[in-house]
Amino acid sequence: MEGFFSVFTVELLNSGIRLATPILLAALGGALCNQAGVLNLALESKMLLGAFVGILAAFYIGNSYAGLLVAMAAGGLLGLLFAFLYHKYKVDLVILAIAFNLIIVELTVFVMRALFGNVGSWSDPSIVRIPDIHIPLIEDIPFLGPILSGYNIIVYFSWLATAVMFVVLYKMRSGRHLRAVGENKSAAETVGINAVLLQTLALVISGMLAGLGGAFLSIGHLKLFTRNMSNGRGWIAIAAAMFGVNHPVGVFLASLFFGFADAFSVRIQNVTDLPPNLVKLLPNLATLLVLILIALRSKLALSMARRRFRAQLRAEEASAVAEPSS
Amino acid sequence: MNSVRFRKILDAILVPLLAVLSGLVVMGILILFLKKPLFESYAILFSNGFGCQAYGNCIFITALERATPLILTGLSAVVAFRSGMFSIGQEGQYLVGAATAAWLGYAIHLPPVLHPLVLILAAMLVGAGYGWIPGILKVKLGVNELLATIMLNSIAALVVEYLVQFPMRAEKSTTAHSPVIDESAQLLAFLPGSKWGVGFVIAVLAVILVYIYLWRTKSGYEQRMAGQSKKFALFGGIRSDSAAVRAMLISGALSGLAGAIEVMGVHRRIMTGFSVGLGFDGLTTAILGQVHPIGVFIVAILFSGLKLGAQIGLQLKLDIPRELGGTIIGFIILFVAAGKLYEENIVRARDWLLSRRGSKLKGESQ
What is the pTM of this model? Predict the structure, then answer.
């Protein structure tokens, strides 16, 4: 049992937060799209694209921060393409996502091999990993310091993005409009909200966030690119968005949960002989449960409303019967 | 053949055909970027994906072998889609089916003909059970089947990975895989040195049965009605809920069958990374195959051939990365999804043709 508890260290928290970051960024994007009523199943491909384009740009420009910007731009452009095809040609977003998930997995490796020869993964000594930032004062706080300080800029950006998204969605007009579009597109349009613009924005921003999340993998966490580097994180991000009921704070916590489960399953391999795959299973099971609970809640609400309506009808009928006789 | 039916078939084929051609054009552009010979590349792709040099040296047979699980997972997606369930759970059902067959393949010992039958039935049952979960969740509670199946896919992947690494792991193996299944449980191949065999026959039978079920039986009709319009089905007295659950059971069984055949006919065991996205490929097969059993059959062979041609033709002979094959398939799906682009032009072209023929006919009668 001692071995089991020795797993919980500051390093575990650190690596949990690091592993949560790409999931959080993509999940925020996914939640934004869900709130706008456009299901974004292409987070996986946008992440992978960001990872690949990010490291390429870092190599050719010679600056890793530029790589981050290019990765965001690439994800955003892909989001724009989705929005264009969806609104102009009514292409099914789910099928579009399936197509792009396939294209990006294969095309990134194709281009990598075309550029750098027949390799399974690629890196170059000239590429610099995004450096960690040690925040002077916070770093010295006992216990909290090492947990809050010492990450690279992408991690802090993801926290900032969570806060900004919360403010925009729940405290600002445009955010309310966006949620209205997600709730009922045609109703929102009849009151003059530009639904197409808002959904396009949601897809573009979500692409940018996912692209940055991907770049975190290739130049923020490691400094290499391998085939299918995102390795299902885009799908986990979709789960995290669902798990966090599409609320920025919920998504933040859900992503941390997934990140910690990941870090935990890595650590636990070294310390105990609990199978890591089963630890990784927990967040997925939890998400499925949350899906069921959400469905149950809305079903309950519906049946309650129905019952209230019936009771009201009965009351009205009774009064209607009573009235003529009086 | 009556002309209405002919035109319906033509309409169904035209968009996928144009999509495939567009995909091949994209391939040409990518090859030109690599500064490789364009026409030679096409020739090599097709001769190495669909060619047959001599008896016993036939790549097309390998394409058929690779197409087998694709046909079945594709059919699985067809049955689900046709009844209005947007299930992408083929991957998970495929994995649990494969794991079941791999386990029973070495855990129990039965005589030759009986053993494969038991394995196949067990895998189909387990797959059906795994398909039932999202079905019943959707019908009873309204849980989005798309999201539920995504979760169930990753759960199945992790559980199977765990099973392969721990309880089912063969002793003394460096890479995790299960023990080889009994010889009595292996599916026969038609030719020595190939793995194209009984599994393919089962897949062809499944194509026919799914077609008969969906288009020639009452419950299949109910299912398609439930898929096309829930309200209309309700007016007709069809219980669309039970039709949806039935569809998910059948869909799961077909994917489980695919997993079992892949274990019994090809790998003889299950190992880490068993699936390599095969379930997803089934989904894309169904989409390009116009959600029709016959379409799935053709497209599965086309996809396998394209991948093979890229892998053993383009990569080995022209040094073009084999990922080109998958890329083209992705683009083909993209072009199918954007089918409206073609449809507008097809209608325009047909109107133009008809008007021309009309004027010609008029000219003749005068």
Answer: 0.85
